[in-house]
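User: Predict structure, ligand zinc ion.
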Amino acid sequence: MTIRNAMSIDLEDWFCVYVLSQTIDRQDWDNTELRVLQSTRRVLDLFDKYNTRATFFVLGYIADKLPDLIRDIDARGHEIATHGYNHQLITRLTPGEFEKDLVESLEALGRCGVGQEILGYRAPSFSVVEETRWALDIMAHHGLQYDSSVFPIGFHPDYGIAGSPLAPYKITDDLWEFPLTVVDVLGRRLPCSGGGYFRLFPYSFTRYCLKKVNRQQRPAVFYLHPWELDPDQPRLDLPWDKKFRQYNNLRKTEKRLDKLLRDFEFTTMREVLSL
Ligand SMILES: [Zn+2]
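Assistant: Predicted complex:
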């Protein structure tokens, strides 16, 4: 039987990314070129081409800017979930500040007129880590049923919970966790769930890893951002390593996504979790 994997899009614009926050302040967002509409439309067309439904973790700020786009995503049968409002890392927030940001994001989705119940959350930069587990109870308190923010790796300086489970599991009594996908190769956990890892390595690497994950009877979750399909976005002067991670292979993403959708079966997070 073919395993159905989860496809997810973190719906934010090019200037919301954490590594750029030193250069583009949150207060400047309103004066910055909004480009996410065109790139998201291209993603939606690709999903239509393969009859794929996906989960969109929508940033509340974008929902307020582009309510028609969010309604369109909803109407096309995709799942709408939340990515918070201001794209702040949970590691930098107090529980009170996190709750406020989460509630604002849910209200923004409500203002768009999204018909479906919001069940899922993904933290900016995977910032559900050991020290921010308190956030999970706040999510459940506001009606969420799953989180997809934990990277089960121990080698990244900014995120990850080393040794945590690889398949979806109950992370608290009330909340499911759908961890970002890694593959175990010779005792090492290699991320193969999208984003920069998808752009950095050849497509054959992702395909090899996801096939291995599915052979182990595990569903994978894949993620991308619309700005990763936008090679013409403004390029900022960043340190070379950040520049490489941010802008490497942007021209190849769309073609690779097309191949990925051809080679694997994807659906929404809530469907894979049977919620
Ligand atoms: Zn994000």
